[in-house]
From TrEMBL:
The keyword Cell membrane does not apply. One of its GO terms (cellular component) is bacterial-type flagellum basal body. Its main location: other. Keywords: Bacterial flagellum, Cell projection, Cilium, Flagellum. It holds the Pfam family FliE. It comes from Chenggangzhangella methanolivorans. This is Flagellar hook-basal body complex protein FliE. Belongs to the FliE family. It comes from the Bacteria. It is found in: Bacterial flagellum basal body. GO terms for molecular function: cytoskeletal motor activity; structural molecule activity. The keyword Lyase does not apply. One of its GO terms (biological process) is bacterial-type flagellum-dependent cell motility.
Amino acid sequence: MTSPTAAASAYASISGLMGGAAGGVQSPLAAPKGGGFGDMLEQAISGFAEQGRQTDAKAMEAISGKGDVVDVVTAVAESELALDTLVSVRDKVIAAYEEIMRMPI
């Protein structure tokens, strides 16, 4: 019986012998391009934090008399939308985790 690693390495060696004629098929053991779910989640959270900082800065400008009230209202609405999106993603992740935990072994 062959292991998945042995099969993957055999596939990679055959693919190398064929000169990559497989049309750019990626090895199953290779890292996915563009990062994974964790990277995407980290970027989304850091984007949300940056949105909050921008909203705070615009609010402080408005308080000091240098900013426009319309800009502050727009920034607050964008922050609220970002927060709603973040909460929705969190709820979906928790629901997926709970579904996985209910799966029989």
